[in-house]
Structure to design on (183 residues):
């Protein structure tokens, strides 16, 4: 009887040890504790609209004020995430700078009569994260992309404006993940 009690106690102790170890998942940000605030100046638009007519850039398009929509979406996503407080102060811990460099609409799928049935939108930016106190570049990403696809007809159809909103949200989500998760 004493051996049985020892075995049960040992099994309970081992089960508790395994369960308390967990799997290592956490919802907390992996960004360093020294960073609490981030300033996000408005993104600049570096799309060269003079290249729209050549054959290599035939799927590039221009959308006025797209950089403003991207900037707002990134700020909104940081506020939703909550890992860093968005600040307009020059004394913020981090500064995220961005520039819109490309907006593309590529055909993905065609109908039997060779009409475009589905498009992919790509919004491409260059982003840099700086430490304000040290005035040091922490990292830089070139050609960072958010995308969305949409059908132009049929049951899955949606407007290009809705798809652009989806692509902007995807880009903002990816930017915030890049900043706070630091993989």
């Amino acid at each position: 009887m004493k051996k049985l009690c020892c075995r049960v106690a040992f099994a309970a102790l081992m089960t508790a040890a395994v369960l308390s170890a967990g799997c290592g998942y956490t919802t907390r940000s992996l960004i360093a504790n020294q960073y609490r605030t981030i300033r996000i100046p408005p993104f600049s638009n570096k799309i060269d609209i003079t290249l729209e007519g050549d054959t290599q850039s035939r799927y590039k398009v221009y959308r006025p004020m797209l950089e403003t929509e991207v900037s707002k979406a990134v700020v909104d996503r940081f506020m939703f995430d909550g890992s860093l407080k968005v600040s307009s102060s020059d004394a913020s811990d981090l500064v995220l700078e961005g520039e819109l460099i490309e907006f593309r609409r590529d055909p993905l799928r065609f109908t039997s009569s060779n009409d475009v049935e589905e498009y992919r939108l790509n919004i491409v930016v260059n982003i840099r994260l700086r430490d304000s106190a040290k005035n040091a570049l922490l990292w830089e990403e070139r050609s960072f992309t958010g995308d969305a696809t949409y059908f132009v007809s049929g049951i899955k159809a949606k407007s290009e404006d809705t798809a652009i909103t989806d692509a902007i949200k995807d880009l903002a989500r990816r930017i915030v993940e890049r900043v706070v998760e630091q993989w």
Q: What stands out?
A: The longest strand covers residues 94-110.
